[in-house]
């Protein structure tokens, strides 16, 4: 009988494990040594250093004195200002208005990602300038904050910044905050060419009940001339479908006239077809001529009627040429489609909701084809209110809680558009009735009211 050979596998495994552990240790140690040698070598030739010199009152000039091969330098001047540069010969003159010690740091970055840092403490012996201001609620009007610049020392100029406003060189200023909420007020002072700023937060406890009454008429077109005023309006022309598969050709004034103080835009049938170019109309815009940010915008108009007609009173962001639509934002103050008589629509279009997904409302207005009505918005940094006839008759409010570039592009100027389209994706959704033409939209005025406080 053949005997089996018994192998002690535990000893073999033990030897293999030991050899593996030794090899791994050698590898790890080698990597450790290599990485540390590489790190040390990468910065061994670097010497981070700078000199400084006091110049004039509270000014310090910093000069790079570093040695070795490196790519960039990052300065931290200890006063909240930091700058990165690749210019090794660049000097910095820094203004320190307040007395005290400031830790200045210079960090070098070489081409291998290695860094060297040096720090020095400078002492500013005396205070040259102190920025300060007071902000007190007005005793008679809780929506006004009385500001006073109480800064100490000499400076060239200053300005208040709040609610997208900039008020220059008013030592005492009454800042108007018409709506409930928290706001930031900034005082920005220029001294020796340096910008110094201070910010404070304030709270407003109530909406101003007289906000609408406090707005002032800043621009209007009453259409009381002989022709459309070219200082206010430009005719857009062409039969391009206008992004909505519309059928009309917009003409250069042939379909718009001033009659007895009214702007009359007329849509005309040119042939018996229902194709692109079978109709003519007008579209006027105030782009580059009359553009506005915030305020009460109101247009008094009488709309046309009939299936296939699509008049609109609306606004687009003035930056549309650079950012496109819908990033520029669109405010449709009033739209009407003829196959839905006695109904008007108010809509906003933003990157977060546009075209058929725009945010808005539709309301019944039985007399819109027979009578003039006022179509308006009250546009503030907080929200956009749409109204019909009076500002008290709000039909829709657009007010995203968390505003972003996607849902609130309405912090930039916009321009007006007045037009009648024929057909199109929405206006022509149920076809065009050629028996209705010609059709006119009459506009009494376009007015803009804004804050003057």
Features of the shown structure:
single chain; 453 residues; mainly beta; Immunoglobulin-like; Jelly Rolls; 3 domains; ten-stranded mixed sheet; 3 helices; 32 strands; 10% helix; elongated; disordered N terminus
DSSP, total strands: 32
Number of domains: 3
- Spans of at least 5 consecutive residues whose pLDDT stays below 50 are 1-13, 27-41
Helix content: under 10%
Structural class: mainly beta
What is the average per-residue confidence, as pLDDT, rounded to a whole number? 92
What is the fold-level CATH name, i.e. the topology of the largest domain? Answer: Jelly Rolls
Shape estimate: elongated
Quick one: biggest sheet? 10 strands, mixed
How much is the radius of gyration in Å?
35 Å
Number of helices: 3
How much strand?
35-45%
CATH class of the largest domain: Mainly Beta
* Distance from first to last alpha carbon: 115 Å
Q: What is the annotated CATH architecture of the largest domain?
A: Sandwich
Question: Could you characterize what this model shows?
Answer:
The chain is mainly beta and 453 residues long. It folds into 3 domains: 50-124, Immunoglobulin-like (Sandwich), CATH 2.60.40; 133-209, Immunoglobulins (Immunoglobulin-like); 212-450, Jelly Rolls, CATH 2.60.120. Helices cover 10% and strands 44% of the residues. The protein contains 3 helices and 32 strands. The protein has helices at residues 9-44, 211-214, 320-323, and strands at residues 50-55, 59-64, 72-76, 82-85, 91-95, 100-109, 115-124, 133-137, 144-149, 157-162, 165-168, 172-176, 181-191, 194-204, 216-221, 234-235, 248-250, 256-259, 262-269, 279-281, 283-285, 291-292, 295-302, 309-317, 330-335, 343-349, 359-364, 373-379, 384-388, 394-398, 414-422, 439-450. The strands form 6 sheets. Strands 15, 17, 18, 19, 20, 23, 28, 29, 30 and 32 form a 10-stranded mixed sheet that branches. Strands 16, 21, 22, 24, 25, 26, 27 and 31 form an 8-stranded antiparallel sheet that branches. The longest helix has 36 residues, at 9-44. Residues 1-13 and 27-41 have low confidence and may be disordered.
